[in-house]
Amino acid sequence: MFSRLSQVSRHLSRPSLNYAATTPPSPLSRALLPKMTSSAVENSRKTIHTAACLIIGDEVLGGKTIDTNSAFFAKFCFALGIQLKRVEVIADDESEIIEAVRRMSNTYDFVVTSGGIGPTHDDITYESIAKAFGLKLQLHQPAFERMKKLSKPHPMQPKFDWDTPSPGLTAKLRMVELPYDEHTPEDLQAVFVAEDMWVPIAVVNGNVHILPGVPRLFERLLENLKPSLLPRLTNPEGKGIYRYLFSTPLPESAVAPYLTDLASRVSGQGIKVGSYPRWGRKRNTVTLVGRDQEAMDALVAEVEQNVQGKKVAREDELDPPLDEGEE
What transmembrane ranges does the database entry give (predicted)? Predict the structure, then answer.
């Protein structure tokens, strides 16, 4: 699947690609990074209990783009019963990416990155993640063939030719040069999850999944990845975590003593108790979150009584009409 660059691409000028970034980390940087404890193959087979999301992009940190991918990923994990333990937003900076991705891969079962895999000079995610694990970038031939087949010509590039070296072709090739591990089966390193999309999900160290930052692509690729994740879940049927909402007219300070006692009593059952004020509203929200639906059902009447509230489907379900002038 992976191949050396074609004759065309070998002769292209690649000033924007920093191949030095694909060499193994220096002894100093390696010493500062977490020690990897599992092989890529082992990581690809582990039961998925925990997840982390790494959002990469100067445009997010600069306020130019609003990140919606982490919120989508959080709902995705919740629905599958995966505990999302960490979300980070970092710059398009090689050292930041290397440190974060190695740490997350070593700590969590399922890691997703978003952003930084486009055709421009500042899209350095593939290069940086390759360097993090001592890998090199290599042309992924199936992705390149799919790109040629499925990409529509840009109206501003009417004379573009896939067989003629050009700056445009150089830029496109950046998007199909993926981290390559010669010690890991190729089918574990890049997967296509939709027949009508050329974009692959590159997988590094068995548990780092590299996705684009464009929300519609991120969401579609992730949804189509779901069938391959189900067999690795604690519940292979993909049943997620349950969240019960209770609407209460009481302030947080009034329900705090009861909720503290309840949380202590049910922690052994894997049930978490939460309390959330709703500023400017006359009712607040109490939550129960857990996997044991029967145990949570048994608590409903008790919680309703002690918070003087009611279990609801939406936290605004029992809100009274707004007074004139309120927003």
Answer: none
The answer to whether 154 and 162 are in contact (CB under 8 A) is: no
Q: CA 13, CA 39: separation in Å to the nearest integer?
A: 35
pTM metric for this prediction: 0.80
Q: For the segment 276-315, what is each residue's pLDDT rounded down to a tens digit?
A: 999 889 999 999 999 999 999 999 999 999 999 999 999 9
Scanning the structure block, which residue is given the tokens 């010509």?
A: 153
Q: What residues form DSSP beta bridges with 201?
A: 191
The CATH fold of domain 2-232: Molybdenum Cofactor Biosythetic Enzyme; Chain A (3.40.980)
Give tens-digit pLDDT for 136-194: 999 999 999 999 999 877 778 777 888 888 888 999 999 999 999 999 999 999 999 99
- Domain 242-312: give its CATH architecture: 2-Layer Sandwich (3.30)
Under a CB-based contact definition with an 8 Å cutoff, are residues 109 and 49 in contact?
yes
